[in-house]
User: What shape does this take?
Amino acid sequence: MGRKIVITSGKGGVGKTTLTASLGIALAEAGKKTVLIDADIGLNNLDVVLSIENKVVYDILDVISGKCRLKQALIQDVDNPSLYVLPSAKLSDSPLLNAASFRNVADALALNFDFVIIDCPAGIDNGFHRAVSAADEAIVVTTPHISAVRDADKVLSLLSGYNLMSVGIVVNRVRGDMVSRGEMMSAGDIVRAVRCEPVGVVPEDDYITVYSSAGRVPFDTVSGRAFKILASNVINGTRNIFDCSARPRLSAKIRRFLGV
Amino acid sequence: MKKTAKIAAERLKNVILADKVAHPERLNDLLKSDITSLLEEYFELYPQSVKVRLQPSEYGLDILIDATAVRVKDFGNFGE
Assistant: This one.
């Protein structure tokens, strides 16, 4: 039986979907058969991040309503044969889209995959409940901004009401240069404030924007290395943290000039 | 000048603390009622002496209970 992990945050725009995609790729690269469920009904973007939006024929609602078989709705990633995606539904008001049906789909996928990663919608309403109910573990994503951490803390409180085996936090978009200058909170500051175990730290990386424009997720970059460490922590239960402060951020122009 | 990261960390701590200690008005009344019932199992309480206060602390919330008992109930007679 595979592990079912929901990626959530509370606040939107902290990089949940990018992290879901990147973690999925890193797990697949590590040899783990992985499926990503886009649980952001009506506001789906996982397909765009992974550049599979033109391959979507069936979605999770089609599976739940019996319009297609689960296998038919899965889309295999071109670059990573061990990575699959179950696209989100475009309709958001179907009564079939409930916590029990989501859990059934996730359970069915867990029979054939090592990891089922669920991309939770922003907010803490029904979509959040559906996504979290289908998981056994949770990763809360935040950025080093007060508003994002505050929402992450609220989500951590809500998650304590679910029967989850583990809950960890990922601090995303950390600017090592700003942390070094004392201008941005460090991951340690955030972890201490929310009192949650850190599973990963991901640096701010201009390449994420560059790659996402081309419909790809960066893997051979500084953030890619952080995602690899995150995947290793998820697989092995280790807690190795990427050191963002070790690498001062260079502007894109300087990096192009230096050819790095 | 104080580093902005330190300012942010302090603000974050205060914001999170404020969120954690925020509670509905009725919570105090319910808590007081339940605690009074529990204490009355063991003590003869001085009328209206139970006070329950919630106040922020470094780790979240301190629950301060103050009560005055006239005497301990006679355990020897329990259930007889």
Q: What stands out?
A: Chain A has twelve helices and eight strands. Strands of chain A lie at 3-8, 34-38, 75-76, 83-86, 115-119, 137-142, 166-174, 198-203. Chain A has a mean pLDDT of 89. Chain A touches chain B at residues 144, 146, 149-150, 153-154, 157, 178-179, 181-186, 189-190, 193-194 (CB under 8 Å).
